[in-house]
Amino acid sequence: MFSVNIFTAIIVLVMGIYDMSYAFNRRKQPNNKGGIRAFMILGVIFTIGGIVMIIRCLINKG
């Protein structure tokens, strides 16, 4: 498959958590209609991807 650096995995995980927190904090504002779902979806994808990358890094090290 492919090799993943642990720092890349951590950055992807942090970016996913940031996207989800951005969407969660902006959900009550009346002028934001469609962008909130996009940030939440991207946050979930990046968070799951970051967790998978970290697991792969830890498995390959051991």
From TrEMBL:
The keyword Transmembrane helix applies. It holds the Pfam family DUF308. The chain crosses the membrane at residues 6-24, 36-59. Keywords: Membrane, Transmembrane, Transmembrane helix. InterPro entries: DUF308_memb. This is DUF3976 domain-containing protein. The lineage of its organism: Bacteria, Bacillati, Bacillota, Bacilli, Lactobacillales.
